[in-house]
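Continuing the batch. This is chain 6 of the set; chains 1 through 5 are on the previous pages. Same settings as before, nothing changed between runs. Recording input and output for traceability.
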Amino acid sequence: MEKILRARDIMIKDFITVSEDTDVWELARLFTVKRITGAPVISGEGALVGVVSQTDIIRHLKDVASGAADDAADFYKEPEPDRPIWAAQPVTARDLMSPSVISAPEQTTIHELGSIMLQHKIHRIIITSGGRLAGIVTTMDMLKVL
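Output for chain 6:
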């Protein structure tokens, strides 16, 4: 009988996380250098608060180029009222991330993972163990076990 592969069998356990305050430039550099397409976003208290992807960065680039972003001139948010323009803050993971995280427990089968990915049109699933972040499964991880 063939073994049923589960998330725990294929998940990336040594994954990269970013803080909510990681700016867009650092995200782009990190994704490029580490050759990743996204990362979980962690709050200052260590809680999982979202996922940011290269698609989120590209979407922001498109908005900036088209003038749809709040400040189409660059990657900085408008400064608070009565603050000088140089006090503008960079766009961060908090601004770009998807706050609704799609996750699955580590015992989820790869068949179920594939269904979740297709249903939600996502390329990575956060894997949990005991309610804690345990790993990530990407579409590439799924392809590797075919």
